[in-house]
Amino acid sequence: MSDDRNRAGHDPASHAYTVGEGMEVTLHFTLKLEDETVVDSTRDKDPATFEFGDGNLPPGFEHPLKGLEAGARERFTIPPEHAFGQHNEQNIQFLKRDDFGDQEPEEGLMFSFADKAGTELPGVVKEVEGDRVEVDFNHPLAGRTLTFEVEVINVRPATTH
């Protein structure tokens, strides 16, 4: 008789792991706007793998996955406060053209700026008027309700490296 169990005596086929703390999750996902426009997806590439609770996914995306097993296909609506936050007018700043150095600020371009602590902050140029440049430091998806479609491919205990 063949024995497929590992050395700990656990038969991997007999236990379906569920998404939760200490688990490594492999899944395909598609992130959509309210009008069904696809913002990001792994469908045309390798699936994403992460450890539940490691900070790779915002909590609003991670929490609905808890308890799912391999093979689950789900669709979740994520409101702005659980996704990338509400749009905040205070995150729109007016800079001088000189702040861009050699680079020419143009509407729609994204630039990376360092804050006082040296943290990189991406900002999108909203408007250029003379020497004054309006830059939006909100996340591009701030204020948006998103649809998060997932297909869980594998759930297994995370291995520490």
UniProtKB/TrEMBL annotation:
Signal peptide: none
Keyword annotations: Isomerase, Rotamase
Pfam families the record matches: FKBP_C
Residues of the PPIase FKBP-type domain: 22-111
Record InterPro entries: PPIase_dom_sf, PPIase_FKBP_dom
Lineage top rank: taxon: Bacteria
Coiled-coil blocks: none
SUPFAM superfamilies, per the entry: FKBP-like (SSF54534)
EC number of this enzyme: 5.2.1.8
Reactions mediated catalytically: [protein]-peptidylproline (omega=180) = [protein]-peptidylproline (omega=0)
GO molecular function terms attached to this record: peptidyl-prolyl cis-trans isomerase activity
Similarity comment text for this entry: Belongs to the FKBP-type PPIase family.
PANTHER family: FKBP-TYPE 16 KDA PEPTIDYL-PROLYL CIS-TRANS ISOMERASE, FKBP-TYPE PEPTIDYL-PROLYL CIS-TRANS ISOMERASE SLYD
Protein name in the entry: Peptidyl-prolyl cis-trans isomerase
Taxonomic source organism: Halomonas piscis
Underlying gene: fkpB
